[in-house]
Amino acid sequence: SVLVVDDDLGVREALASVLRDERLIVATASNGREALELLRAGFHPNVVVLDVWMPELDGEATLAAMQAERVLEEIPVVLITAGSEKRLGAVTKRAANRIMRKPLDLEELLAAVDEHIVRDFH
């Protein structure tokens, strides 16, 4: 499963649609606060696709909150951004975390997500 977090409804729905086409279970959130509520309520996806620039609680703060909670810290995160934030290097210290630039290359995004998905072919 995948959690897509982006304040832009169009981006959020497009990403969710592409991921569902890959037969993945997808939940969405419009900001970091909503994402943390879902995660704390027990939704533990294989990977989170997380926008950096969002109102209320941005991607960097959301990731920091996840890394501060034992239950959430191991969930891999793919950060997506339209900017060129050099300061984000620290959040990618774990190999599971990646940064991807918008506009997204969907093949690259799917490959990044697929690294964390265990597929059952039975």
Entry keywords:
122 residues, alpha/beta, 5-stranded parallel beta sheet, 5 strands
* Main beta-sheet strand count, sense and barrel state: 5 strands, parallel
As a whole number of angstroms, the C-alpha radius of gyration is 13 Å
Number of helices: 4
How would you name the oligomeric state of the polypeptide chains in this document?
single chain
Shape: globular
Question: How are the elements arranged and paired?
Answer:
Elements: E1 2-5, H1 9-21, E2 26-29, H2 32-40, E3 47-51, H3 59-67, E4 77-81, E5 98-101, H4 106-114
Parallel strand pairs: 1-2, 1-3, 3-4, 4-5
Helix pairs in contact: 2-3
Q: What do these coordinates show?
A:
With 122 residues, the chain is an alpha/beta fold. The protein contains four helices and five strands. It has helices spanning 9-21, 32-40, 59-67, 106-114; strands spanning 2-5, 26-29, 47-51, 77-81, 98-101. Strands 2-1-3-4-5 form a five-stranded parallel sheet. It starts with a strand and ends in an 8-residue tail after the last helix. The model has no long low-confidence stretch (mean pLDDT 88).
